[in-house]
Amino acid sequence: SGNVEGSDRSGMAERALLGAEAALGALARAAMALMLVLILVQVFTRYILNDALPVVGITEVYLMPIIVFFSLSRVEAMNGHIRVDLLYGRLAPHAQRRLDAAIMLAGAAFWGLVTWYGTDEMKTAYARGYLTSGEFAWPLWMALLVVPVGAGVFTLRLLLGFAQRVAGGQEPD
């Protein structure tokens, strides 16, 4: 019965994480579409109207980080990150699972630190009222919030993958 409860909890965690990843993925796709539109408008205003619309700051500070950080976890869930498997494919499945677990735990530790320090930077920017530089002075904490949210969800994905590998419930692809 304990195994079924653990399996139910793992399934609930997986569903919740997939929901968060889907929401972040939708935001990343929207940011990509908005970036495309803004760049097209900038090109149009620069070459047709001789008066370029300033969109570089918004793209650099807000949209690009959203695209990167909000996509990390979903790509991991799809096993889409680049992996060099020169020796990996020659290992037995149980050794692959152990290696995956170790890598996921190390990755979760790293991305957990990114989440922690990103949160600290965001709170500092909020408390001190930092603004972005450039044409538009927007609160910097809004841009910095992207890092701990994306890194935090990615950390949870890695921890769930670690737990699955340790339990032996998921074979490597």
What overall form do the CA principal axes indicate? Answer: elongated
Oligomer: single chain
Count the DSSP helices.
6
Q: Which regions are unreliable across 5 or more consecutive residues at pLDDT < 50?
A: none
What is the residue-mean pLDDT, rounded to a whole number? Answer: 87
Radius of gyration: 20 Å
Number of strands: 0
Helix content: over 70%
| Structural category | mainly alpha
The succession of helices and strands, N to C, reads HHHHHH
Q: Beta-strand level of the residues, as a percent range?
A: under 5%
Please give the alpha-carbon distance between the first and last residues.
29 Å
Q: What's the story with the biggest beta sheet? A: none
Describe the structure.
This protein is mainly α. The protein contains six helices and no strands. Helix 2 runs parallel beside helix 6 and helix 4 runs antiparallel to helix 6.
What is shown here, in short?
The protein has 173 residues and is an all-alpha fold. The chain is built from six helices and no strands. The model has no long low-confidence stretch (mean pLDDT 87).
